[in-house]
């Protein structure tokens, strides 16, 4: 029986790729660096803001800190311009009768602002960001959530869309539920040994034991 579900944020709960891409390109423009396509930026998401910008500025690593500051300044003002919940997830969260949590590599204050702005923050007992625990795939943050909620790992699940999420689940270890609508191609997850990704909110609800 599942007693706790821990979710990734970007690519799992929320489609934030356009706001992230716009912030990256704004920051690159401020330093007169070439802009990137949405698909390129999306492939860089998942390991935190610093890693995102490091990949975006390559090979101009000397400008990384300045681009990162510009990115934060812009993103904090525009993080809800285009970001939305994936279809059906608001209803799924509302129906859940087990505790829900979020473990993301996004800074915690930004994650909570997004969830609050989308009207779903109250569904989560905890939201742990990448600046509040070791960044995934380090299992520290997820293990801490399990400890605070007093739920054994084998009675919980980690829901995510990326290889980083899968690696986090393996490191805990905790059962992993992959979603197929996120930033990573489902084929990559399958190749890495993930279970077959769920295709929509109804399949995710069934995987979590949440009544439709």
How are the secondary structure elements laid out?
Blueprint lengths: L3 E4 L6 E2 L1 H14 L7 H7 L4 H9 L6 H15 L5 E2 L3 H7 L4 E4 L4 H10 L8 E3 L11 H10 L6 E5 L2 H9 L4 E3 L7 H6 L9 H8 L4
Parallel strand pairs: 1-4, 1-6, 4-5, 6-7
Antiparallel strand pairs: 2-3
Helix pairs in contact: 1-4, 3-4
Written description of the protein model:
This protein is an alpha/beta fold. The protein folds into two domains: 138 residues, Rossmann fold (3-Layer(aba) Sandwich); 62 residues, DNA polymerase, domain 1, CATH 1.10.150. Helix content is 45%, strand content 11%. It contains ten helices and seven strands. The strands form two sheets. A five-stranded parallel sheet has the order 5-4-1-6-7, with helices on both faces. It has a two-stranded antiparallel ribbon with strand order 2-3. β4, α6 and β5 form a beta-alpha-beta unit. α1 crosses α4. It is globular and about 55 Å long. The model has no long low-confidence stretch (mean pLDDT 95).
- Structural class, from secondary structure content? alpha/beta
Secondary structure: number of strands: 7
The percent range for helix content is 40-55%
Count of spatially separate domains: 2
**Assigned CATH class of the largest domain:** Alpha Beta
Question: Which spans have pLDDT < 50 for at least 5 consecutive residues?
Answer: none
CATH topology of the largest domain: Rossmann fold
Strand content: 5-15%
Please identify which CATH superfamily of the largest domain we are dealing with: HAD superfamily/HAD-like
The largest β sheet comes out as:
5 strands, parallel
CATH architecture of the largest domain: 3-Layer(aba) Sandwich
Rounded radius of gyration (Å): 17 Å
- What does the overall shape look like? globular
Placed side by side, the strands forming the largest sheet appear as 5-4-1-6-7
Question: Could you give the order of the helices and strands?
Answer: EEHHHHEHEHEHEHEHH
Instruction: Return the average pLDDT rounded to an integer.
Output: 95
Number of helices: 10
Q: What is the end-to-end distance?
A: 17 Å
């Amino acid at each position: 029986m599942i007693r706790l579900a821990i979710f990734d944020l970007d690519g799992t709960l929320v489609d934030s790729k356009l706001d992230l891409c716009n912030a990256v390109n704004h920051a690159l423009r401020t330093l007169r660096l070439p802009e990137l396509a949405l698909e390129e930026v999306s492939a860089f998401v998942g390991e935190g803001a610093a890693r995102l910008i490091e990949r975006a500025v390559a090979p101009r690593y000397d400008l990384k800190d300045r681009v990162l500051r510009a990115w934060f300044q812009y993103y904090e003002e525009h993080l809800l311009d285009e970001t939305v919940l994936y279809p059906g997830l608001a209803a799924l969260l509302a129906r859940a009768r087990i505790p829900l949590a979020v473990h993301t590599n996004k800074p915690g204050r930004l994650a909570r602002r997004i969830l609050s702005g989308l009207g779903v923050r109250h569904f989560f007992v905890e939201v742990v960001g990448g600046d509040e625990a070791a960044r995934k795939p380090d299992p520290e943050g997820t293990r801490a959530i399990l400890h605070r909620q007093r739920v054994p790992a084998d009675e919980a699940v980690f829901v995510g869309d990326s290889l980083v999420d899968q690696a986090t689940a393996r490191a805990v270890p905790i059962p992993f539920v992959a979603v197929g609508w996120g930033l990573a191609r489902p084929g990559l997850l399958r190749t890495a040994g993930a279970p077959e990704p769920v295709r929509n909110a109804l399949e995710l609800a069934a995987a979590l034991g949440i009544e439709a």
